[in-house]
């Protein structure tokens, strides 16, 4: 069971090592494998709760679909909005902190949604209240302070995909 939990951590650590080193030399591959195996063994029990979820093709499909949508649609749209606001000072900027409810349970799911909001230009999660199941989000141009409307505008798509990947 520990090896099943360690395998995804090893693969993730090794992939990250190779991507950031930018090298496929024998030294880097060997070093990456050694470090990744040690990390996988040490952190498997606190990182992976259910190893069968990691190897689910359905979850990988949704993860890929989410990544494509996030980087090609959401990021692009929000970057263009922020660029327009920078280049056209007359465009309104109505910053504020809004309460955005969420309807998910798992730590990975909540973290995924919060990271997606924060990594999208124009929004930053400033606090997560798991007890009340809300994010407090700084929004560059508050369109609505109504929580349900803010959720539709800010996090509904992120929640849709994250739920399918992590829960």
How much helicity do the residues have?
55-70%
Overall body shape: globular
Q: Averaging pLDDT over every residue, what do you get?
A: 93
Taking pLDDT < 50 over at least 5 consecutive residues as the criterion, the unreliable ranges are none
Count up the domains: 2
The biggest beta sheet reads: 3 strands, antiparallel
Spatial arrangement of strands, main beta sheet = 1-3-2
Output the structural class. mainly alpha
Cα end-to-end separation? 20 Å
Helices and strands, in N-to-C order? HHHHEHEEHH
Range of strand content: 5-15%
Helical segment count: 7
Q: Roughly how many Å is the radius of gyration?
A: 19 Å
Give structural notes.
There is one protein chain. With 167 residues, the protein is mainly alpha-helical. The protein folds into 2 domains: 2-51, no CATH class; 57-166, no CATH class. 65% of the residues lie in helices and 11% in strands. It has helices spanning 2-21, 26-47, 51-54, 57-87, 107-119, 147-154, 156-166, and strands at residues 96-101, 123-129, 134-139. The protein has a 3-stranded antiparallel beta sheet. A hairpin with a 4-residue loop joins strand 2 and strand 3. Helix 1 (2-21) packs across helix 2, helix 4 (57-87) packs antiparallel against helix 7 (156-166) and helix 5 packs antiparallel against helix 7 (156-166). The two termini are 20 Å apart. The model has no long low-confidence stretch (mean pLDDT 93).
């Amino acid at each position: 069971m520990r090896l099943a939990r360690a395998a995804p951590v090893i693969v993730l650590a090794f992939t990250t090592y190779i991507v950031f080193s930018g090298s496929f030399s024998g030294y880097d591959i060997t070093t990456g494998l050694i470090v990744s195996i040690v990390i996988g063994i040490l952190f498997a029990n606190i990182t992976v709760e259910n190893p069968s979820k990691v190897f689910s093709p359905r979850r990988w499909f949704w993860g890929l679909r989410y990544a494509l949508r996030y980087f090609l649609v959401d990021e692009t749209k929000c970057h263009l909005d922020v660029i327009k606001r920078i280049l056209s000072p007359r465009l309104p900027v109505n910053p504020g902190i809004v309460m955005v409810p969420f309807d998910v349970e798992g730590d990975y799911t909540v973290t995924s949604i919060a990271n997606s909001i924060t990594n999208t230009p124009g929004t930053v999660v400033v606090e997560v209240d798991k007890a009340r199941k809300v994010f407090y989000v700084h929004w560059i141009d508050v369109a609505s302070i109504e929580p349900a409307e803010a959720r539709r505008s800010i996090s509904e798509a992120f929640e849709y995909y994250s739920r399918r990947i992590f829960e």
